[in-house]
Amino acid sequence: MKLRPLRDRVVIRRAEGDTRSKGGIVIPDTSQEKPLEAEMIAVGSGARDESGALIVPDVKAGDFILLGKWSGTEVKIDREDLLIMKEADITGIIEKTVAAKNAA
């Protein structure tokens, strides 16, 4: 993918949602809630403050994040559903524990 977001924008890929309920019922795509977890794909260079100084983004490509339910703009690039949003719409960075890294 050759997409570079501008300024304080980021490109993310939503995590895969569960396709089955806890009881084992298959949930159709149209009824599934969008996951609030995502992986950072690309990050812009950062915003500028009033004096013109560059504010470097707190996130980087490869980070896993939490985002708001209705955040960003959905786009399809190279047959992949992605989301472009401002860095300010990110609620947090998910830190992977050692056990989670070993399980992955």
Automatic annotation (TrEMBL):
Keywords tagged on the record: Chaperone, Cytoplasm
Keyword Cytoplasm tagged: yes
Function (record text): Together with the chaperonin GroEL, plays an essential role in assisting protein folding. The GroEL-GroES system forms a nano-cage that allows encapsulation of the non-native substrate proteins and provides a physical environment optimized to promote and accelerate protein folding. GroES binds to the apical surface of the GroEL ring, thereby capping the opening of the GroEL channel.
Name this polypeptide is given: Co-chaperonin GroES
Chief site of localization: cytoplasm
Source organism: Mesorhizobium australafricanum
Xref: InterPro entries: Chaperonin_GroES, Chaperonin_GroES_sf, Chaprnonin_Cpn10_CS, GroES-like_sf
Gene: groES
The family this protein is said to belong to: Belongs to the GroES chaperonin family.
Subunit structure: Heptamer of 7 subunits arranged in a ring. Interacts with the chaperonin GroEL.
Places the protein is found: Cytoplasm
